[in-house]
Amino acid sequence: MMDVELAGPGPGSSRARGRLPTQLRTLVCERSVLDRADGSAKWTQEGSSVLAAVYGPRQAKPQKEDAEQAVVEVVYKPRAGLQGHEDRTFELEVRGILEGVIPLGMYPRTSIMVVLQVLQGDGAVLSCALNAACAALVDAGIAMTSMYASVTCVLTEEERLLLDSDAAEEQAAKACFCFTVPHHYDLTKAIDGQVVISNAALGSRSYGSFTSDHMLDAFMLARLGCERVAIFAWLSLTKSLQAAGST
């Protein structure tokens, strides 16, 4: 478990749980939590938690098989009830991002399936699901051209940006943004490596009332948040590898 936070912007900025506008919630990542999956991970951001399972690369069904590349399939399961329109939209969002980082040509005629089960949903659920999927792909040993991190932020009615929003903040928000940013680790920069975060988004989802300046400011804030998520993911992965090596 690691509490990751950014520098606060000043007084009068407290939120629920005493967080500052630019502060992330507590991040927890558990890997290899499912025995029958090729890779799995549980990603938690306090009140939001998603379990991801990766199956494959496996022989694709004849009707879906592509002779030149792998087929990525994503199943997004809500915490309770039947799948709705937003859940199907999330499937498309996640699949598009995964297709952007997995070198599909390495796995012709195969299928890579990612199943995402929402366990808790207190805001930033899509970002939580994307981060869980990335951790599960690493656990499965799937090749990726880069890793990525995702965060959500909201624009309040007072036009303040809040990073890593909870459900109440999203419901009251004027606009909501989810950005996914690719990154890699440069092991030549320091003993423990250094996160190199991209200046471009791998994926974005936004809704509400906002201007282009609002969106640009939201991306700059989200990029800083993604850098902190990437650092956490690196430390979490390193710790899990060390634990596996000592057994």
UniProtKB/TrEMBL annotation:
Which species does this protein come from? Volvox carteri f. nagariensis
Give the main location: nucleus
Family, similarity comment: Belongs to the RNase PH family.
Q: Specify the superkingdom.
A: Eukaryota
CDD domains on file: RNase_PH_RRP46 (cd11372)
Q: Kindly give the SUPFAM superfamilies that the UniProt entry links to this protein.
A: Ribonuclease PH domain 2-like (SSF55666), Ribosomal protein S5 domain 2-like (SSF54211)
Intracellular or extracellular location(s): Nucleus
Per its record, what are the GO molecular function terms?
RNA binding
Q: Which InterPro entries does the UniProt entry name for this protein?
A: ExoRNase_PH_dom1, ExoRNase_PH_dom2_sf, PNPase/RNase_PH_dom_sf, Ribosomal_Su5_D2-typ_SF, RNase_PH
Give Gene Ontology CC terms. cytoplasmic exosome (RNase complex); nuclear exosome (RNase complex); nucleolus
Q: Name one Pfam family in it.
A: RNase_PH
Name by which UniProt lists this protein: Exoribonuclease phosphorolytic domain-containing protein
Q: Give the Exoribonuclease phosphorolytic domain ranges.
A: 23-142
Q: Name one GO biological process term.
A: U4 snRNA 3'-end processing
Give the UniProt keywords, A-Z.
Answer: Exosome, Nucleus, rRNA processing
rRNA processing among keywords: yes
